[in-house]
Amino acid sequence: xxxxxxxGTFDLLHYGHINLLKRAKAKGDYLVVGLSTDNFNTKKGKxxxxxxxERKKLxxxxxxVDLVIPEDNWEQxxxxxxxxxxxxxxxxxxxxxxFDDLKNHCEVEYLDRTPEISTTKIKKExxxx
Length: 129
Ligand code: C2G
Hints:
Layout: E1 3-8, H1 15-26, E2 30-36, H2 38-44, H3 52-60, E3 67-71, H4 77-83, E4 88-92, E5 107-111, H5 119-125
This protein binds [cytidine-5'-phosphate] glycerylphosphoric acid ester.
Residues 6-10, 16-17, 19-20, 36, 44, 71, 91-92, 94, 113-114, 117-118 line the site of [cytidine-5'-phosphate] glycerylphosphoric acid ester.
C-alpha cells in the first residue's frame, strides 16, 4: 500500500485541483490531503471563499481522496509523513524545490500545474475579488 500526501487550500474547487489529485492518487493506493485551515490561509496570505468545513466536504467527495486532515502550519509535514506512514509527497510545480527537505523522509514529486486556471482567475472573472 503506497501512501501519498499533498497539501493545499483547494478553494473554489476546479479542474486544475482535480487533475492534481487524480495524478497524485495514481502514484499510489491511498491519498491524504492536508487541507489548509482558515487560520493557516491567513498565514499564507490567502482568504478562501469557502470555509475549511465546506472545502473539506468537497474534497471528501472526490474519488481520488481517501483522507482529509487539517493543515495548520508550515512545519507539520514531517510529522504527518511519519504519523500517516507516507511514501511520497506530491504538490504542483508552482512549489518546485520548495519542499526538497522532505526528501529525508519520503519521495518528493512536483507535478505540472494545469495551465490557465486558478482560483484567483475565477474570482477576478466573476468579480469576487
Ligand atoms: N494546482 C494545479 N493547477 C492549477 C491550480 C492548482 O495543479 N491550475 C495545484 C497546486 O499546485 C497545488 C494544489 O493544486 O498542488 C492546490 O492548490 P492551492 O489550493 O493553490 O494550494 P496552495 O495554496 O499552493 O497550498 O503547504 C502547501 C500549501 O498548503 C499549498
